[in-house]
Specification:
There is one protein chain. The chain is α/β, with parallel strands linked by helices. Helices cover 26% and strands 25% of the residues. The chain folds into 2 domains: 2-122 and 301-330, Quinone Oxidoreductase, Chain A, domain 1, CATH 3.90.180; 127-276, NAD(P)-binding Rossmann-like Domain (Rossmann fold, 3-Layer(aba) Sandwich), CATH 3.40.50. It contains 9 helices and 15 strands. Strands 3, 4, 5, 6, 7, 14 and 15 form a 7-stranded mixed beta sheet that branches.
Amino acid sequence: MRQVVLKHPVDHKPRADDFQIVDTDRPACRDGGVVVKLSHVSMDPYVGARLRGRHMGEPAPRPGEEAIPGHGVGVVVESRSDALKDGDAVHLMEAGWRDYAAADAGAVRTISTDAIAPQAYLGVLGMPGLTAWAGMTQLAKVKEGETVLIDAAAGAVGGTAGQIARARGAARVVGIAGGAQKCALVTGTYGFDACIDYRAPGWEAALKDALGDGIDVHFENVSSDILNLALTRMKPYGRAILCGLAAHYQTGQPAPGINFGPIIGARASLHGLVVYDFYDRWDAFTGEIAPFVRAGEITIAEDIAAGLNAAPGAFERLMDGHNRGKALIAL
């Protein structure tokens, strides 16, 4: 089989020429495990930090040896487990950018492809969707009639979070994204009420107008700068979910500080969100969201790279924020 690996250690924002594609043996099926032929593999922003060994204490993959990490979906082609059989459609966390992956049966989830495309389990029904669901329903507990602000709204997490907020009864959902095309995706595909292009002149004033009398819930994906701005528009007892700091992932520098005055003035709550804490609620998440996906009421645009050869260039585009929707590799 083939897999994508690092050419060398990286200490910078990954570029396409930091990767290479190598031939290697297909993995053996161990006792109690399966081998999966992958159909799609996920590309996610946090992997840029993971490749430098700067994500949640996880080591960087060994150059020339270990596949670039990523979740995957595919079909079981060999099983030594009573729980799974050949032909089962599955999702696995440690798939990697490669053709086949081996895993213990306990690390694999069977998936329903009844009116749901398999790759949806890497986006709206995958880790990005779980992240959005955890933030909106488990931490912020969005209620009917509330106003929600989400930055990086064109991404898989932000786009799903806004749609979940609307499904939970939010009266107004406003996004922030970079560029007119991304804002068109946010309002036209994801159904947000408004999207503010942070690259446009006067965007901060436009955001204030779009938010009306203020924010009940803010979902932060980008930077402490945007968080500080959102906090100035927070209603009393509003909630901010701190999901990510994408603007700072590749800099190696900590994010600037938070202005505490608006937090105290609004009596606001800040909740850190790490999706790993919610893996044990995956069934509850898919049970709630899958019916919306089948009905076409929650969806995420997909930015698909065709084959492993296209993966390095597509990942560079993701690192530069040029993807539109969930970044995937179709094998």
